[in-house]
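tool=predict chain=A
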Amino acid sequence: MIDSSVFIGEVKAMTPSLYRVGMGILGRQADVEDAVQQALMKAWAARHRVEESYLRPWLMRIVINECRNIQRQRRRTIPAEIPDQAQAPASDYSDIYEAMDALPEKMRLILLLRYMENYSEKDIAKALGLTVVAVKGRLFRAREALKKRLTVEGVAFE
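tool=predict ok
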């Protein structure tokens, strides 16, 4: 059982990561805000059922699930407005962000968790409900796909 203050502290520490991963999946700020809010409400209600050592991957898993729920809802509705464009962070890495955005969600998500959020392979496995071996395989394929896409776009590797 997790103490309320521990839960709140972890949520505060993870909030930027939760939003970045949500943006990587959904691409629209308003949808990401909805997903994170819904996820945190669900996590708060069920916080007594999770061990403290599993809290971070568990919270990330809930956000990922909420993002997927929103994606399913999008497919069932007709858009009434022009969707917002996802904004890549302003930096010298815009080619990488564009190439990552073009990858399939499975690859993009695993790269986000590993290299942008610094999750271990074990924590990624917990968050995504996979084995560590499956995570390693997906990471390899995702890196290869990203490298191939960047090579096509003319980005040099060292």
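DSSP finds seven helices and no strands in the chain. Residues 19 and 32 are 6 Å apart (CA to CA).
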